């Protein structure tokens, strides 16, 4: 990439058939729908892609199918998170070889009792960086159980060649983003917001340059970022108010199931199946989700009809 990525870089859901098998044709339709939503890039195999229920073979298939199908129409970010540094290195090399524009990684973790110290976390990201020549986004999320203090993130940005993007999903994300940007300066190429953009306005106030949401309503969230960065803060605030009910319902009630359910209702995919031990959302939650999505006229709800 010549220019830094900004704007909205949503996570693609992984579609499954009703029997739980991966739906590769559905995956291509998801990607086409997201491109029609006007996204600036697409992230695959993230937590909202249910990466933790995929086999290594399935991951490899989805990586190849996604990168071949997108074929450079937008940049594709491939998530390569794993506890094993060698597995991360192998995944990183494969993703770059297939055409990934960026990698996203969480720190290594495997439960509360297996979170490495700061030195090992630094080495983990450094090994991935040494294996590729594309940017790496650090995903700083409570899910990992790993604490990533600002000084560590700044050191990583300054000393690890390809670490330059940061997705902040911790409590008080805006304060941490502001501190990271101030301390890291030019080394912080892409300070990003996450968590379905539930903290986006505060994170923009703090200096973030983009957001990584789900694929539920990126065409409606993107203008919040673009208007704000163009200096039209009132317009960004007005659009934030439009998006917030659906953002809140997704973030607090639906989680990763939301985009799949709306995409099924909109004919993008045939099933909104999630793999056990995840459970389908209740009829009550689904009804409210589809009502809010219809009121917002999201593209995913009409794309396949």
In short:
Helices cover 47% and strands 10% of the residues. The protein has helices at 24-36, 56-70, 85-98, 118-131, 150-159, 173-184, 200-206, 218-229, 233-254, 257-265, 283-296, and strands at 7-8, 42-44, 76-79, 102-105, 136-140, 163-168, 190-193, 210-211.
Structural description of this entry:
47% of the residues lie in helices and 10% in strands. It has 305 residues and is α/β, with parallel strands linked by helices. The chain has one domain: Aldolase class I (TIM Barrel, Alpha-Beta Barrel). It has an eight-stranded parallel sheet with strand order 1-8-7-6-5-4-3-2. α5 links the parallel β5 and β6. α1 crosses α2, α6 packs parallel to α7 and α8 packs antiparallel against α9. The longest helix has 22 residues. The protein is globular and about 50 Å long. The two termini are 35 Å apart. The model has no long low-confidence stretch (mean pLDDT 96). Keywords: Lyase. GO terms for molecular function: 4-hydroxy-tetrahydrodipicolinate synthase activity.
Q: List the strand order in the largest sheet.
A: 1-8-7-6-5-4-3-2
Strand content: 5-15%
Please write the string of helix (H) and strand (E) elements: EHEHEHEHEHEHEHEHHHH
Shape: globular
Major sheet characteristics: 8 strands, parallel
Notable features of this structure?
single chain; 305 residues; alpha/beta; 11 helices; 47% helix; 10% strand; Dihydrodipicolinate synthetase family protein; DapA-like
């Amino acid at each position: 990439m010549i220019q830094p990525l900004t704007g909205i870089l949503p996570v693609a859901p992984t579609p499954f058939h009703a029997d739980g098998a991966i739906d590769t044709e559905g995956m291509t339709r998801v990607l086409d729908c997201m491109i029609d939503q006007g996204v600036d890039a697409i992230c695959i195999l993230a937590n909202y892609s249910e990466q933790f229920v995929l086999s290594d073979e399935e991951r490899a298939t989805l990586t190849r199918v996604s990168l071949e199908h997108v074929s450079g129409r937008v940049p594709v970010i491939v998530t390569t998170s794993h506890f094993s540094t060698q597995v991360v290195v192998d995944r990183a090399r494969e993703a770059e070889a297939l055409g990934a524009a960026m990698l996203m990684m969480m720190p290594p973790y495997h439960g509360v009792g297996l979170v490495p110290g700061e030195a090992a976390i630094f080495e983990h990201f450094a090994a991935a960086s040494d294996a590729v020549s594309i940017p790496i986004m650090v995903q700083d999320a409570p899910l990992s159980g790993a604490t990533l203090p600002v000084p560590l993130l700044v050191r990583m940005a300054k000393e690890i060649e390809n670490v330059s993007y940061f997705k902040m999903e911790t409590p008080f994300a805006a304060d941490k983003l502001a501190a990271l940007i101030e301390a890291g300066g030019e080394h912080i190429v892409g300070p990003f917001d996450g968590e379905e953009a539930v903290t986006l306005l505060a994170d923009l106030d703090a200096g973030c340059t983009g957001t990584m949401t789900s694929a539920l309503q990126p065409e409606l969230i993107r203008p919040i970022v673009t208007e704000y960065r163009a200096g039209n803060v009132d317009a960004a605030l007005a659009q934030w108010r439009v998006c917030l009910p659906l953002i809140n319902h997704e973030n607090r009630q639906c989680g990763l199931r939301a985009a799949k359910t709306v995409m099924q209702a909109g004919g993008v995919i045939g099933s909104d199946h999630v793999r056990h031990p995840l459970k389908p959302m209740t009829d009550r939650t689904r009804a409210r989700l589809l009502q809010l999505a219809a009121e917002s006229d999201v593209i995913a709800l009409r794309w396949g009809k």
